[in-house]
User: Fold this.
Amino acid sequence: GNSVTQMEGPVTLSEEAFLTINCTYTATGYPSLFWYVQYPGEGLQLLLKATKADDKGSNKGFEATYRKETTSFHLEKGSVQVSDSAVYFCALRITDSWGKFQFGAGTQVVVTP
Amino acid sequence: NAGVTQTPKFQVLKTGQSMTLQCAQDMNHNSMYWYRQDPGMGLRLIYYSASEGTTDKGEVPNGYNVSRLNKREFSLRLESAAPSQTSVYFCASSEAAGQPQHFGDGTRLSIL
Assistant:
C-alpha cells in the first residue's frame, strides 16, 4: 500500500542550527511528494513539492530532494529561526487513484533562542 | 483574502448529539476535502468531493456524512457523536483533484 513515514518528534534545536526531518515513502507508481507546515492554531500550508525523481523543491530556505533510489524526501534547512517552530508533514499524492494525498504523522520542531 | 473558512473553531458536544461543521472556500476550487487530525496519526481523509455534485468516502468515513451544497461549500455532519470522534477537523480545497490542497484553520471538537 501507500504510506509515508516521518521521524518522530519533537525535534528541539537552537536558533541557527541545521534542521533535517527524515521522510520515507512506499507507493505504487511515481508519486509526487510534498512538505506541508502547520503553525500553532492554523491549518496546513504547502511548503514545497517535487513531482519527479531528482527534483528539488525549495521555499523559505527549506529544501527537499526527491530520491527515488532511497524512496526518501528529507526536509532540510541550513539555519533555523524561532519562527520555524511548527509541525511539518510529509505527504505523497497517490498516482493510481483520483489523486488522493497520503500524509505522514507529522514532526514537531521546536526552535529555542 | 479568506481562502478556506471553517466554522465553528471550537465545539463541545455530549455523546449522541448531532453537529454540522461548515466549510466554505472563495478560490473557485473544484475539489474539497474533510480530514481529521489525531495525535501521532497525521491527517486522515474522511470524505472528499472531487467536483460539485459528487462526494466519495475516504479512509475513515464511518459516523460521518457530507454535503456539497454548491461549489463553495462542503459540510460535514456527525449524526450521533461519539467520544472517538474527538479530534481536530480540517477542511481543504484544491483547484482540481490531485492538486496541492489549501487548508482551513480547523475545528477543535470535543465529545464528552
